[in-house]
Amino acid sequence: MPEAKIVVKRFDPKTGKFYNKEYMVPYSKDTMVLDALIYIKENIDRDLSFRYSCRMAVCGSCGMVINKRPALACETPIAKLTQPVYIEPLYNFPIIKDLVVNIDDFLDKLMKIKPYIIKKTKEPEEEHIIFSEQQEIFRYASVCINCLLCYAACPVYSSDEKYYGPAALSLLYRYYMDPRDEGKEERIEIASNKDAIWKCTFVGECSNVCPKGVDPAFNIQRLKIIVSTSILKSLILPKLK
Amino acid sequence: MDRFEYDILIIGAGAAGLRAAIEAASYNPKLRVAVISKVYPMRSHTVSAEGGTAAVLKEYDNFDLHAWDTVKGSDFLADQNAVELFVKLCPKEIIQLEHWGCLWNRDKKGKIDVRAFGGMSVKRTVYAADKTGFYILHTLFQRSLLYENIERFDEWFVTSLIIENNRFCGLTAINIKDGSFHIFKGKSVIIATGGAGQIYAFTTNATINTGDGYAIAYRAGIPLKDMEFVQFHPTGIPGKGLLITEAARGEGGYLLNNEYERFMKRYAPEKMELAARDVVSRAMYFEILKGKGFKGPYGDYIGLDIRHLGSKVIEEKLPTVKEMAEKFAGVDPLKELIPVRPVVHYFMGGVHVNINTESPVAGVFSAGEAACISINGANRLGSNSLSECLVFGAIAGRNAAIFASEHDFCNLPQESIIKEEKRIFEGILKRERGIPQAEIKYELKRVMDEKVGIIRNEEGLLEACSKIIKLKEKFKNVSVEDKSNIYNTDFINVLELDFMLDVAEAVAFSALYRRETRGAHYRNDYPNRNDEKYLAHTLIYKTNGEPRIEYLPVVITRWKPVERKY
């Protein structure tokens, strides 16, 4: 088996220092970056810390920066990377240890966008009648796994941590689009917050790194149109009366 | 050391734990609910469930039929009163999730659509593309944010239950982020920690599925039930073990041997690829044994053929299958067969609870894969488990809330707390120079794969039992190399391994003593079902030596055991 040279940017919370450590890891065409990290932990450095769980790109635990690009370690084959492979913790988050970052800020932002159906009228006895066409147009925006690669790639979030960020705003769009939701006005208000959609400069890096095709950049632009239209309506409509 | 106090403690934040939390929190907004999980909720293994979740929603279907399919699927080991309750409550839960925003696929009339699944007589599996678990988990997690009386402890690892005079008092837990040890006082607790596929090497389960909940219950004197019944899912990707959903066959996919024959016609002429999972997995195993598998780098495999379904069906209904095949098996499922092999997937057994999700210890409840009620008996039907998490998660949440409303806190016995702290921080963490946990873990996985797998016998099981006892001895020399406090996963992995060894013991010993073949438990030395002796649940109790086994009769209401054919 050939060996890959892997450099991990490590962080020791005791000393508060970063350091690069180099490892040689055997690999085949099926070896993912995650497999290599597990190999290092089990055979070389037992004190290397990183998060992982499902191994199939759906739990969102193993987001990290691989050769300068935010990616999920479990679905990134070593064989397709330029060596030495350089692995860093996700950008733009406080680092706890090695590749483990603190994601609490995202959870706060998730709360802000009210990620649940807002219902003001009585629930129907059975299910809502929704046609596939109504639902499938925004399904892509609903498959966010909260891996936070988009926050690591976002130049706005990198300099302004108050910005709600791509994943949270995409979910705002997803709930706005949901035919069951009766919180449209609240959602427009949330979107209009100074730290929400207007901070996005449409660089589009979030959509480039998203492993699930959520396309946050597009969703935020859609929200901008929705908010603008509602402002226009509120300006024009009274005059029409 | 902090002492937290909550009315209801919930261990685990997957579908069962979150459903329970929402139910308990809404039962009485004054009750304070703590959800403690070793991962953030959206990382829970529910997220990996793909195919769907069963419920009687269509006019052509009825409760009796769903119950019968489940009982037959269970090889008559399910408790029929529990199954009857379960099937009646499934539709309500599906509708509830629809109201909470879950994006179920729709039929042409705009109603919730259903698909075919193994062992189900009619189409009754509700689905959200092939990301059903993802949608259920995120819907529940996001909904749970609405309840101010739910507080979460994300990345906290529960190490033990504190029980005195057969009454739950609290639990001990480690905050993974800083390594600190804490006490949670509670009136009731719900164990919703999922399964333990990680005691095997070849498994669909996430690496977090180390059976922590089984072990803490078992150690606290609560018996585990039916642990010998480990489900092999027919279609895992060789090497990694990742899951290709049963929905691939539900939507019309074939299983082919190396002669391109749909061999299932010889094993289950009527249901073919959609027979119950134990039947399909064994058939695949026998085909491979006869030399009829395809050759691959990770051993012989069977071909899953979905080419004829066409790109539209695959894109709309099976996008994850396509993604998994391309990324993890390196094949294009529109043009090639997907290589698959039976793989450890689900534990029918679990914490012994009754139809109300109550364990024998007052105040301890359990739901989801962690629990054994049992509605799954010797073999679970695909798409019953997500429904089980919802139905019995809700029941556990409500009953734990009622219990907490009717009882007071009890005094925490100090000795057991001190003992637990010593076990971990002096016994395990301070041990100098020893063997790494990975060494024992892989020895354990190997023996479980080889001797407690899809085909079992007395000799192999005896070997496994004695090997596990030896590994438990060897564990005493495991050391934690990383001595730091902050996010020390070496430390947590050692604690998990300690639990895995107890779970493996329960599985292997339960399997040894069940000298018959039933559902997923196939003994080639006892190839027939023996209803006279074993129409009963295994209860296994931890002792200082070998575990103690008892049997509990199965509850039969309407369906007498008959021969099982598909």
Which labels suit this protein?
heterodimer, A: 241 residues, alpha+beta, Ubiquitin-like (UB roll), Fumarate Reductase Iron-sulfur Protein, Chain B, domain 2, five-stranded mixed beta sheet, two-stranded antiparallel ribbon, 7 strands, 38% helix, B: 566 residues, alpha/beta, Flavocytochrome C3, Chain A, domain 1, Methane Monooxygenase Hydroxylase, Chain G, domain 1, seven-stranded mixed beta sheet, globular
Please write out the topology:
The complex is a heterodimer of chains A (241) and B (566).
Chain A: E1 3-12, E2 17-26, H1 33-43, E3 63-66, E4 69-72, E5 85-88, E6 95-97, E7 100-101, H2 104-112, H3 132-142, H4 149-153, H5 155-159, H6 166-177, H7 184-192, H8 205-209, H9 216-240
Parallel strand pairs in A: 1-5
Antiparallel strand pairs in A: 1-2, 3-4, 3-5, 6-7
Helix pairs in contact in A: 3-6, 6-7, 6-9, 7-9
Chain B: E1 3-11, H1 15-27, E2 33-37, E3 53-54, H2 63-73, H3 80-99, E4 114-115, E5 125-126, H4 132-144, E6 150-154, E7 156-164, E8 167-175, E9 180-191, H5 212-219, E10 224-225, E11 230-236, H6 247-250, E12 254-256, H7 264-267, H8 277-289, E13 302-305, H9 310-317, H10 319-328, E14 338-347, E15 350-352, E16 364-366, E17 371-372, H11 384-406, H12 414-428, H13 437-451, H14 458-475, H15 489-513, H16 531-534, E18 536-541, E19 548-553
Parallel strand pairs in B: 1-2, 1-9, 2-6, 9-16, 15-17
Antiparallel strand pairs in B: 3-5, 4-5, 7-8, 8-9, 10-15, 10-18, 11-14, 12-13, 13-14, 18-19
Helix pairs in contact in B: 1-4, 1-11, 2-3, 3-11, 5-15, 13-14, 13-15, 14-15
Describe, in short, the structure shown.
In chain A, 38% of the residues lie in helices and 15% in strands. Chain A is built from nine helices and seven strands, in the order ββαβββββαααααααα.
